[in-house]
Input
Amino acid sequence: MNQEHLVHSVEETWQVAARFAEQLQPGDVVALQGDLGAGKTTFVQGLGFALGIRRPMTSPTFTLSVEYRTSRFLLVHMDLYRLSGPDDLLPIGYPEYLESGAVVCVEWPERAGKLIPENAWHITFSLTDEPETRIIRIERKETSR
Output
């Protein structure tokens, strides 16, 4: 499954995230890739709002992870920017989140290496020449779950 969206605002990013939220299932991992300021956290905020979260959602850059309870599953937002590699995920509960059926959104997933499951959603945010415009690519390998 592959999708590409051209968005021109935060609101349009939230709309794409809301449509994507409908597809999420317990246990999904969402790998969010893109430069600083490309829209990764904004996308997770849109997901959260679509899933009924009404408290502020900010980037967990310094806390590394934040949990949000939804009516369907636990949504975990992780920011791995400050980590050096996969071994750093073990003490912050990453394996337990995967085993629990939480939906885990991971910013800077390259720091997790092979700990990102093969069937993860991969969402890539690309900057354009226009300051507010982004290209959002949503991809997932077709595997049996």
About this structure: The mean pLDDT is 92. The beta strands are 2-7, 29-34, 65-69, 74-79, 103-107, 121-127, 134-140. The chain is about 20% helix and 30% strand.
